[in-house]
Amino acid sequence: MKIAILTSGGDAPGMNVAIRAAVRYGINKGHEFYGVLNGYYGLVNDDLIKLEHKSMSGIISFGGTFLKTARFPEFREEANRQKAIDNLKARGIEGLIVIGGDGSYRGALDLSKMGLKVVTIPGTIDNDIYGTDYTIGFHTALNTIVEAMDKLRDTSVSHQRCSIIEVMGRECGDLALHAALSGGAEFLVTPENPLSKEYIIDKLKEYKKEDRTHAIVVVTENIFNVHELAKEITEKSKFTSNATVLGYIQRGGSPVPSDRIIATRMGSYAIDLFEQNIHSVAIGIENDKLIYLPIHIVLNNKRRVNPLYKLVKEVS
Ligand code: ADP
After folding, report:
1. For ligand 1, atom 19, which residue shows the shortest CA distance?
2. In angstroms, rounded to a whole number, what is the distance separating the alpha carbons of residues 162 and 85?
3. CATH 3.40.50.450 fits 2-137+255-299, yes or no
């Protein structure tokens, strides 16, 4: 079988590992592979390269995606998707692996409705995809955040400060939640666990009375203006405070082993599914077992709120 593979949407460490696994596992089973450059943009513009066993050499430790990624809103137009399908047909390519987040999954679902065999793999640091315990890139981003928190704590303790750290995650607080647990944060603010400024400031006043010397607040992006929050804390709570927005460094870096392992398992599983003629599905990992669900089920369901939220409070 001829199979194309693309990465789309936000990049995530470990995408290269998933590509490597699919290609090497697939070539060893007699399949042929094409890499699509720049996500759906490259699919529409027929920008494909042949991938060989040796093209995968050395990429296991590289962050980002060597196939590049792009945002291409025009992929919502059916005429563009038809062009993409025609391009693949002309090359005799029957299957497509899409590695990306939920936006990329929407494009994949549309393609599968038009008759293409598509399998998706969750590649996003946000861990915001239904039907998988973890997405590729999540653990690497978490590691970056916790390293930053450890450094911030050193200086917070020395200056008796309240440090605020803003992390990525969009509508999903998983990065903040796991960072709060791993980095020992006093406050966790996420879409699933909203805390008001007033609550944080009142608690900090109590901390001062208890002689607690520092505090860390972890916040998911798009909830507060963290610099204004720091100003208010400084004015009202007797803690001095400042805010660090971690930003795009969370997206980079060499993938940690747990991301490499799930990426390798998911990449090779995509080939197993094609061989069983199973497609229009999204791969996930649940309780350490690989699973697949129809893409539309994944897109139309929300992850349940993580039970670990309770524990953050209990250990703060
Ligand atoms: P992510 O995959 O990380 O969620 P985006 O939401 O930016 O990232 O989506 C990546 C790409 O997927 C978009 O640039 C677009 O090409 C494609 N896409 C997103 N939504 C749709 C849609 N509703 N229909 C078709 N393609 C879509």
Report:
1. 103
2. 54
3. yes
pTM over 0.85? The answer is yes
40 lines ligand 1 (CB under 6 A): yes
What is the Å distance from ligand 1's center to 107 Cα? 6
**Site to substitute for ligand 1 among 8, 98, 120, most atoms within 8 A of C-beta:** 8
Q: Would you please indicate which residues are annotated as catalytic (active-site) residues?
A: 126
Q: Over the stretch 3-22, which tens digit does the pLDDT of each residue have?
A: 999 999 999 999 999 999 99
H-helix or E-strand spanning residue 111 = helix 102-113
Residue 304 Cα, ligand 1 centroid: separation in angstroms? 23
Q: Coil, strand, or helix at residue 171?
A: coil
- How far apart, in Å, are the Cα atoms of 152 and each of 146, 156, 236? 10, 6, 22
Is there a contact between 130 and 301 (Cβ–Cβ < 8 Å)? yes
Q: Is the CB of 259 within 6 Å of ligand 1?
A: no
Burial 94-122 (b: 16+ CB within 10 A, else e): bbbbbbbbbbbbbbbbbbbeeebbbbbbb
Quick one: average pLDDT of 17-30? 98
Equal fold, 2-137+255-299 vs 139-251: yes
| Paired tokens of 264 | 């390798």
pLDDT at 160 over 90: no
Which pair of structure tokens corresponds to residue 268? 């090779």
Distance 310 CA to ligand 1 centre (A): 34
205 Cβ below 6 A of ligand 1: no
139-251 CATH choice from 3.90.190.20, 3.40.50.300, 3.40.50.460, 2.60.40.1230: 3.40.50.460
Q: How far is the CA of 30 from the centre of ligand 1 (A)?
A: 31
Q: What is the mean pLDDT of the chain?
A: 97
Q: Which two tokens stand for residue 314?
A: 């209990």
